[in-house]
Design a protein that fits this description.
two-stranded antiparallel ribbon, 19 helices, mainly alpha, 86% helix, homodimer, disordered N terminus
């Protein structure tokens, strides 16, 4: 790790990838300029967009304050009880995670009215504006993650030496993950409390359409799209990206003989894929075709560019192969491991699309079940979610088996990093969803023409599918990244115990009851974490319902259109409720890990079981929840297209119930599992020297 | 194992426990005589009871035929590819499992009208008739299990020697478990398809009350209570009991130095608890008080008697302690392990009661959430189910830790057997549920007076809670029993590999990717198993809905009360649909295990992971599903008592949706996981010598 020759590779490889990151950031700013050049529409549109922007900013500012308090406490704990580099790493990770969310949201609210305006001219234009809005977030998140990890590592290395520098990266990972749990939960609770609240009173009781300006919660609902789907998702993927990068570095240091190249490799994969993402973005901006196929084409293009460039890069870094866990692996072995990550991205996207798109059987089955009522709609949706776990988990198993065969634990890490390297283009698709959703809202609220609404509706439907699809990606990659972290936990524990001169005789065997108990405790976490999250949405939504009812009763003019509702009141109420309700579930994983570590009858072996248990059930629960949610949503849309009686039919009422149940499933509880399973693993690694 | 002195203990201990079993059977026949002596009510009541009886018999006969075909195929496979004792063991296990279900159902349909009739006289009388009906099943199931395992082991031992005899018990376990999966699924699909079908058209579309004789599906609905809740439950608990007994014997042989006493011990625990159950039954028949407290008192009484008698029995069998896994354990250690099992029974009952009884916060929270509509009712119910997993799993973890500390893997097995030894009294409570449910149905259909209905309604509510509570017990004990089987799998594998002269170097460590992949594959099984089960209910219910609609349209006189519906048609349709739909999910666990064993890249280590993965997620999914279901059911009842608007209010409509979603959750998919996780483990043990 300290060979002078190796040092050169380290320097130049990381430097090149950071240059790619800077290029990515440059493109992001270019795209911002392009977006700003397009017209934000008429007075009314600007007004609505402004209200949404203001609400989102107000929420995020308060969220930042709330989270900052917690972050400072943890920073101080790390600073005094752990070490300074880790503490500063934590601070940086937390800051960047917040920044990623903030930027994602800002861009989205800049883009929304511009998409609506573009839709008045041409659909392709609207598609491009919306996609470019997402692409800014994608490029910024990826660039930020590469730069943060790379530069922090560089400085830490010079100041405290390479070993300590690698260890302190875990602090950065914790900062990113923990903040991301809060962002996901806070944003998720906000968006769904506003959505459910708006729907329950507005749609069901008062019979208003979606986004009707007479609904007092409608601005809050649109704010929610931004703070949940944009800011939450951006923080989440930033975190998974940073954690995968750090996890791969850690596994490289712990298990690969030629550590410097193993450290550089994940940076290089990430850097190359920034170029791939830029190619994908160009493809959308200069290609043509149906929205869904253009977007999927962009993903394919990115993957192709990455797959081609990974080959020479891998051979350059590992010209003579490398010894991993006592066995020599060829550069081709490592290349194959990276390919598995790229292929997994495609596989997960295709599978999630099958289970959540209205063009296939699962969603249509739910739509048909809606004919016999609310209950059968729910049963069908729950069943679809559970069915949807089979293929992704099966492919994850195959990916683990293959990449491990190619290059041991490091091979798995490389596959994960390659999968995550696609985040730039994948976030572009994901952020596309809430932007088009908002654009549609603005079109309705501004009373724009039918053709404009049709255009935004079409984009919104595509956006819905993209949102569902990228959730599958986020979860699968989170599960794999967490597995890499678990591997790091065991290696760290071994290093820690043997560094104290003791023999390492911990057994993580399934025949050891402590491991089984750990699996149970860990397996429990996703179940109660999501239960608390759903409760939180319920409570926050209840507050919205009461406020909307109050306004409609106190001001009958609102429903007649003669009075303007107090949108700000609703925004304010959801903001407070979301921030209050996110605390308990967000601190749950921390509490679990520390308790298991502290109780002497449990200890490091049980904790190992906890980590794996959380990953196993977490993966299933998250996939089931997000798939059910996506499928319910599109089943409703399928009925609204005129099937099974169309809008207003009993089947539609049942489908609305399913959609509402699906809201906290797919946008709060399910996706919040991603950062949660990583927090559990990172905290476990971090506390090894404190408690064991 | 072949010491002559030890042989004596073996003989006399087993003999004594079999005498207890025979005493239990004697009491069961006495109770049948008592039940038969009481009046079956007036003509109309006898008629309805007869129709239910006929439908149930017709279904069970067809189910027996369907399952027999599958059983014969497996018997032949075992006979030709495995060995004869195992094959015959399978046949005996399958036969007894079917018999247990059959008897349970027969007694229940004998008792139902008699409970209604008793309710016209005195509530205490009705309570006793219903409880005695359940007690017959309880005693028969336990006695049958003890006798079947004891006598088969005795004969097999004399014919093929002790080693082979123990191995062939696995065949018996497979027979019991596999048939029980079919019975649980078939019965569960039947009961819920009929229930959901009857409710969807009858209650929601035609506005009929529960059990209204004008609903063509009402007899099918009442038949369902018997074939699902009685026959299915009886087969299920028979299976768990037999498997726990066999698992404890197996672990005793594989890990305990003084094997004969270790083999006798589980029989003795079982035998003693038959006496405990009889004391509990006496308590109900001669004690007084509120229904719920009398029944809970009976459980307490049984546990107390068992706890007292376990002490001398344990010291008698292990006067000088025993060496387990190389460490000497005192008789008191073993006694404590058995106590843990008894305590776990109480703990699980109390916890499940908290989450599913309308007297506590969780159910009331769901009821309150119903006010804001269908969707919030569903979200609240799903969240309650997930919350409900925490405490049982926590206590299971503590029980594993303690009993393992007392006596290694054998200690866990002893705790499980002690827990299962309570099955006699627990089934009495459980079968009480469908009997009172039917009694209420008969009261409504026979137009009996208000006071009678009030009496049967009160018993029905108690029965609902008992049903929910015993489900928690069934699942917790099934999970623990499956863990013992997993321990046996590893020991068997070790014995098999070393007997071939090869070193045993399989690692079941979490650091081994194959184990992780196994955990994923195994973890998947409960998710898709329950998904298929729910689909099956949906399809079968759809058939009922179409038939009920057809009858109501073709014969308008039915709703006016001038025409009698064709009840038999509905019964027939559900019968066929249930038997058709149960096949795929029931064969799923078999297919999983065999595929993993056959694929060379997977093999024994992955299979080990599969076994544990299925147990871990299975436990969570089963507890969540049954708790949600029970809570939804009672939330509806809570509203029907006049809260949140009472019957007919929007909150009630929402609560009915929750109850309907809960039906397949709590009565089909959830409970079918119990035998499923054991089938997986047993098949794995069985195929070791074939594939590895």
């Amino acid at each position: 790790m300290t060979l002078p020759l190796a040092f050169d590779i380290l320097q130049s490889g990381v430097r090149l990838s950071l240059i790619c990151a800077v290029i990515g950031l440059g493109c992001a700013f270019l795209l911002i300029a392009v977006i700003l050049r397009s017209s934000p529409g008429n007075e009314r549109m600007r007004q609505i967009s402004g209200a949404v922007q203001e609400g989102a900013k107000a929420y995020l500012n308060r969220q930042v304050m709330t989270i900052s308090v917690i972050a400072v406490v943890i920073f101080l704990l790390l600073f005094f009880f752990k070490d300074h580099p880790t503490a500063f790493g934590f601070l940086l990770g937390a800051f960047c995670s917040l920044a990623a969310g903030y930027i994602g949201m800002r861009i989205a609210v800049l883009a929304n009215a511009r998409v609506t305006q573009a839709a008045t001219q041409a659909r392709t234009r609207a598609l491009r504006v919306a996609f470019n809005g997402g692409a800014v977030t994608g490029l910024l998140v990826v660039g930020l993650a590469l730069l943060a990890v790379g530069i922090f590592y560089h400085f830490a290395r010079n100041m405290v030496g390479p070993d300590m520098a690698v260890r302190s990266l875990i602090g950065l990972a914790l900062g990113a993950s923990l903040i991301s749990v809060f962002a996901r939960l806070g944003g998720g609770i906000y968006t769904k409390a506003a959505d459910v609240g708006a729907d329950l009173v507005g749609k069901i009781e008062a019979g208003l359409e979606e986004d009707d300006p007479r609904n007092p919660a409608t601005i809050a609902d649109n704010v929610g799209d931004n703070v949940g789907d944009c800011a939450g998702m951006a923080a989440d993927v930033f975190e998974t990206y940073a954690v995968s990068l750090i996890g791969t570095i850690l596994v490289g240091v712990l298990t690969v003989a030629n550590a410097p190249a193993a450290i550089v490799y994940p940076f290089v994969l990430g850097g190359i894929s920034v170029l791939g993402a830029i190619c994908g973005i160009l493809f959308v901006n200069f290609g043509g075709g149906k929205p869904a196929s253009v977007l999927m084409g962009a993903v394919g293009m990115s993957a192709l560019v990455s797959a081609i460039l990974f080959w020479p890069a891998t051979h350059q870094l590992f010209p003579n192969g490398v010894e991993i866990a006592g066995k020599l692996r060829s550069p081709t072995d490592l290349y194959y491991a990276s390919l598995i990550g790229l292929i997994m991205t495609g596989v997960v996207v295709v599978i999630t699309n099958y289970y959540t798109s209205m063009r296939y059987r699962p969603v249509q089955k739910i739509a048909r079940a809606s004919e016999t009522g609310h209950a059968t709609n729910i049963i069908a949706g729950l069943a679809v979610g559970q069915h949807a776990t089979a293929l992704p988990v099966g492919f994850i198993g195959i990916a683990i088996l293959l990449s491990y065969n190619f290059a041991g634990l490091y091979g798995i890490a490389v596959a994960v990093m390659a999968m995550l390297s696609m985040a730039g283009i994948i976030i572009s698709l994901d952020a596309f969803g809430p932007i088009t959703d908002n654009a549609g809202g603005i079109a309705v609220m501004s009373n724009l023409g039918k053709e404009v609404r049709a255009a935004t509706d079409e984009l919104d439907a595509v956006g819905n599918t993209m949102k569902a699809v990228t959730k599958g990606y986020a979860i699968a990659s989170a599960g794999l990244a967490a597995l890499v972290l678990f591997g790091s936990y065991v290696e760290e524990l071994k290093a820690h115990i043997t560094s104290n001169g003791q023999p390492f005789n911990f057994q993580f065997s399934l025949t050891e009851p402590k491991v089984i108990i750990g699996l149970f405790i860990g397996g429990l976490l996703p179940f109660i974490f999501t239960a608390f999250s759903m409760d939180a949405v319920g409570k926050a939504a209840g507050a919205v319902v009461r406020e909307v009812r109050r306004q409609l009763q106190a001001h009958p003019g609102i429903l007649q259109g003669t009075e303007t509702p107090e949108y700000g009141k609703c925004v304010d109420i959801v903001t407070k409720a979301a921030l209050r309700e996110m605390i308990v579930p967000a601190l749950l994983p921390l509490a679990f890990v520390i308790l298991v570590a502290v109780i002497p009858q449990l200890g490091p072996v049980v904790l190992g079981g906890v980590l794996v248990g959380t990953i196993v059930t977490g993966l299933f629960v998250a996939i089931a929840m997000t798939s059910s949610g996506g499928a319910w949503d599109n089943a409703k849309k399928f009925i609204e297209e005129g099937n099974y009686g169309g809008k207003g039919s009993p089947a539609h009422a049942a489908a609305v119930t399913g959609d509402t149940v699906g809201d906290p499933y797919k946008d709060t509880a399910g996706p919040a599992i991603n950062p949660m399973i990583k927090v559990v693993n990172i905290v476990a690694i971090l506390i090894i020297p404190i408690f064991f």
